Amino acid sequence: MTIEIRNETTTVVDEREFIELARFVFEAMHLHPATEMSILFVDEAAMEKLHVQWLDLPGPTDVMSFPMDELIPGTPQQPAPEGLLGDVVLCPSVAAAQAAEAGHSPVEEMLLLTVHSILHLLGYDHMEEDERTEMFDLQRKLLLTFLASRPAR
């Protein structure tokens, strides 16, 4: 698995933590061991440009997902084929504001958004209520299992 991280912000990001999370989700979703993905951390101005360009929506957003090979989750018996999953673009300052409203840390918000985006890259969506329930339940399970599996820091 190749997970490339690039931080174009002044926010300090523990890149290793995001790589470990992505690997955890890749394994849980039975992705091919050679699957590739990138995570990019950008400031609000860069995120706003992407938000306008791709979704025609004003202002910065928390996270955007850009799928590449349209991979879908595999199973233990049939892992997903090898491929390029896509790109996740996160805006730490928007995530920090959301974290403050939600009552948890900015890093917890960014980890949640990373799981959320990986699921989008795998074809999950939340436009319909049943899709929302499925995606958000899976996102919560993956994140909580990942956090519980790590040694105390």
Short account of what is shown:
The chain has 5 helices and 4 strands. The mean pLDDT is 95.
Strand neighbour order, sheet with most strands: 1-2-4-3
What is the total number of structural domains? 1
Gyration radius, in Å: 15 Å
Q: What is the mean pLDDT? A: 95
Percentage of residues assigned to helices: 40-55%
Oligomer: single chain
By CATH, the architecture is named: 3-Layer(aba) Sandwich
Per DSSP, the total helix count is 5
* CATH domain class: Alpha Beta
Helix/strand order, N-terminal first = EHEHEEHHH
Task: Compute the number of strand runs.
Answer: 4
Shape descriptor reads globular
The chain-level structural class is: alpha/beta
Low-confidence regions: none
Provide a descriptive summary of the structure in words:
With about 150 residues, the protein is of the alpha/beta class. It has a single domain, classed as Metalloproteases ("zincins"), catalytic domain (Collagenase (Catalytic Domain)). It is built from five helices and four strands. Strand 1, helix 1 and strand 2 form a beta-alpha-beta unit. Helix 1 packs parallel to helix 4 and helix 4 crosses helix 5.
